[in-house]
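Q: My labmate handed me this sequence with no annotations at all. I'd like to see what the chain might look like in three dimensions before we decide whether it's worth expressing. Could you predict it?
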Amino acid sequence: MDSDRQRLSPWLTVLAVLCASVAIGSILLDDGDESAPGPIHSTAEVVEPPPSPASRAAVALPVKPPETERRSTASSYPAASGEPSARPPGRPFIVVRNGAEVTIRDAPAGDVVAREDDETEFGSTTVFSVDEVRNRWIGVPTAKLPNGKLGWVRADPEAVSSGYTEFRIDVDLSRHEARLWKGERLLRKWTVTVGGPETPTPTGRFSVTDLFEGGLNPAYGCCAVALSATQPDLPSGWAGGDRIAFHGTDGPLGVDGSNGCIRSPDRDVRALVHTVPLGTPVTIRR
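A: Here is what I predict for the chain of 286 residues:
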């Protein structure tokens, strides 16, 4: 917990400034050398996480759900009154603004590995959980890089807005258990099936990228919650993609038997789809 606070403390300060800036005006990001040290300044409003529902295509799911309207980005957070809080509840995230594009690099001011616009490949609003901040660079979990390696996005207020969420999901692979939290309050826990010996579920820090409900292959149940995690050990002949997701199942629970995805009872994965916002942090441990 202490290491998390140290890693994120610059960002928490930024969010406090952003809350105040809604009321008192804009603070602009300096131009110049992208790698130059300095604080993150932003005109971005603090927003509530967009709770996008069913997206337009399935992650690692062979049948596409029907076309659905893309949910709009979240509304602005209320302006702070008086002194802004120095420690917003929950974990920060950034949202790619409508019509904008961000460059993902392998290190602050490093090599470009991908570019992301305001929609994911599956039609959801593009939201990144924030894991680390270095000067003007934001470290985010992304499926564009191997599990455990952060992508780095420049803190450009014209390209991203920011906020935070109190929700988080923890998965304990050895106990075959998932838990949904809001702050320090446990909302839900349930038994899951996880990856088998040849296709283990990856461990690490990830985030929710897309939410699906309906239109899936029946093997995936009612719903799915796609993560930034990927499966590097795909089984031979598998054509369903490499993304890891929570998804429903009518098969056995509490065993090591999936291709890496986290199989859950329909009622529990449906609860996730209707509760957690995009950008919710997910920790998977053994």
